[in-house]
């Protein structure tokens, strides 16, 4: 899932590398006179992808806040021009963070740290009281790491990696010691961009029969009204909604965490993930384009994904490899994108050497979904038997050769994304979608992260994690965090939201010029007794607490 691709300086080219590049230059390559021609060449000539990316790489000027302002204006216009989005979609920033989100993130952070303490700290270390001053520094350090700040000059490799004008995703290398003309694009970056899972041909005959079965299809006849959102959700006559509800019934409530609500999959509603271990029992079902409503309804939780509202960029600035960050504000509980790739079994993942990319979507050890399918009364005994056989294997979504932007989501010990499964149009393997959901309000510039699991950190990263999210043990002030209470952590997430929201409103929504603001601020700092600065300090003292 994370990208560990090499981009290195070719100041001293190896003979093999020079030979490959020269051979490609000698090939009959059509010169691109337009983006359409380049799109055609890039899509159809696999052997030239790397060379085209090398050719396109150039150093450009970059205005970070100007980019966020531009994206904000585009999304705002898109919403205003679409009657459905205008009525239902809301991406405004509230004055304060939602307490439920801060509570859940505080719980996740507290549990991760307590788990670390049990494994690594001695009783003497645990008994040391917290240092309030150092805890302030720890929280301030984490707040400053909430988003990535790119340089003013960047190496742009691709203007739009997707080649889809409706979903432009630029690709940057911010390692500026590298000459743009000598950037090497490794083979792992040469993949086909797809926005739907691809069912591979190496599946057994039992699986093919399951895929082709008419019994597994579920479609509703709720009539679509032009320009309006159909009310399929809460409609007892809608088979898609009824299946959505049946999936919800298998969710478990964790009394220890004081969770009283089940996750609800409804379009334009917040999807609040209940638990760290929510993946195996948090499943939804949504209407599709094959329904009479055409998926334009409140029972299609991935409607906003299909509209491609959010804007992202892929970048690299250190040894972590390529990462993904957002260029717009994403409210918590939002479906962001699907984790897309080729649908393969465990043996294929091993043969492809895709362990670092593939995500297990069906586990042979999981019993909840296996038992669920066995209890569906509308399935024949033969189809149930095929489902049972299907779950004898582990199945993966592998984006190594065919995938989308989700393959660049990095590991995070305290992630801002979670994943859940949603079926659309039916309950077969081909109808499954692994959807990534925002666990908190995500502001422009934030790197998108997902918890790959403890085994990944130990086996792949060799306990050398570089995510630097709040729960990461490699953080400078991690020891101080182990002394923090849940209340401290809750307040940290509330305060972090306050500062991020303040900057977002000032420099994106209101379009304030950051450079002019910095000049004014420097004048204030040179005159510390200036009345305006004294008043601002007074307000800050009133609005902040010991966690600042």
From TrEMBL:
Q: Which SUPFAM superfamilies match?
A: SET domain
Superkingdom: Eukaryota
Q: Where is the SET domain?
A: 310-453
PROSITE patterns linked to this entry: SET
PANTHER family named in the record:
HISTONE-LYSINE N-METHYLTRANSFERASE SET-6 (PTHR47250:SF3)
Protein's name in the database? SET domain-containing protein
- Organism encoding this protein: Caenorhabditis angaria
Origin organism lineage: Eukaryota, Metazoa, Ecdysozoa, Nematoda, Chromadorea
């Amino acid at each position: 899932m994370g990208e560990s691709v090499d981009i290195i300086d070719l100041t001293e080219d190896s003979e093999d590398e020079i030979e490959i590049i020269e051979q490609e230059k000698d090939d009959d390559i059509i010169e691109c006179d337009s983006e359409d021609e380049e799109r055609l060449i890039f899509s159809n000539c696999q052997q030239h992808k790397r060379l085209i990316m090398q050719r396109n790489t150039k150093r450009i000027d970059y205005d970070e806040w100007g980019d966020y302002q531009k994206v904000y204006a585009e999304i705002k216009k898109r919403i205003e021009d679409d009657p459905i989005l205008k009525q239902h979609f809301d991406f405004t920033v509230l004055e304060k963070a939602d307490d439920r989100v801060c509570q859940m993130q505080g719980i996740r952070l507290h549990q991760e740290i307590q788990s670390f303490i049990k494994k690594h700290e001695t009783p003497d270390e645990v008994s040391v009281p917290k240092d309030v001053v150092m805890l302030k520094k720890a929280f301030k350090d984490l707040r400053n790491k909430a988003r990535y700040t790119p340089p003013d000059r960047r190496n742009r490799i691709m203007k739009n990696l997707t080649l889809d004008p409706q979903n432009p995703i630029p690709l940057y290398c911010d390692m500026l010691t590298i000459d743009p003309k000598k950037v090497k694009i490794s083979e792992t970056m040469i993949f086909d961009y797809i926005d739907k899972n691809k069912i591979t041909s190496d599946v057994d005959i039992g699986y093919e029969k399951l895929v082709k079965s008419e019994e597994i299809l579920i479609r509703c006849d709720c009539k679509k009204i032009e320009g309006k959102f159909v009310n399929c959700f809460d409609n007892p006559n809608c088979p898609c909604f009824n299946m959505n509800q049946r999936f919800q019934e298998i969710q478990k409530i964790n009394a220890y965490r004081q969770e009283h609500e089940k996750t609800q999959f409804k379009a334009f509603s917040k999807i609040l993930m209940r638990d760290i271990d929510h993946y195996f029992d948090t499943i939804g079902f949504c209407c599709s384009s094959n329904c009479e409503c055409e998926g334009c309804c409140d029972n299609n939780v991935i409607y906003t994904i299909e509209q491609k509202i959010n804007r992202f960029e892929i970048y690299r600035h250190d040894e972590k490899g390529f990462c993904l960050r957002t260029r717009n504000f994403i409210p918590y509980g939002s479906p962001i994108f699907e984790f897309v790739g080729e649908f393969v079994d465990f043996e294929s993942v091993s043969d492809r050497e895709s362990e670092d990319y593939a995500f297990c979507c069906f586990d042979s050890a999981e019993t909840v979904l296996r038992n669920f399918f066995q209890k569906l009364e509308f399935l024949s005994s033969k189809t149930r038997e095929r489902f049972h056989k299907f779950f004898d294997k582990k199945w993966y979504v592998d984006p190594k050769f065919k995938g989308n932007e989700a393959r660049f989501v990095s590991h995070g010990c305290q992630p801002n994304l979670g994943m859940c499964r949603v079926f659309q149009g039916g309950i077969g393997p081909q109808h499954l979608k692994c959807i990534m959901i925002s666990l908190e309000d995500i502001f422009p510039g934030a790197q998108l992260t997902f918890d790959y699991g403890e085994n990944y950190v130990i086996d792949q990263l060799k306990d050398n994690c570089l995510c630097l999210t709040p729960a990461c043990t490699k953080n400078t002030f991690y020891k101080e965090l182990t002394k923090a209470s849940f209340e401290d952590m809750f307040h940290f997430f509330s305060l972090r939201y306050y500062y991020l929201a303040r900057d977002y409103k000032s420099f994106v929504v209101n379009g304030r010029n950051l450079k002019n603001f910095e000049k004014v601020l420097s004048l204030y700092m040179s005159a510390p007794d200036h009345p305006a600065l004294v008043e601002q300090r007074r307000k800050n003292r009133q609005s902040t607490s010991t966690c600042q």
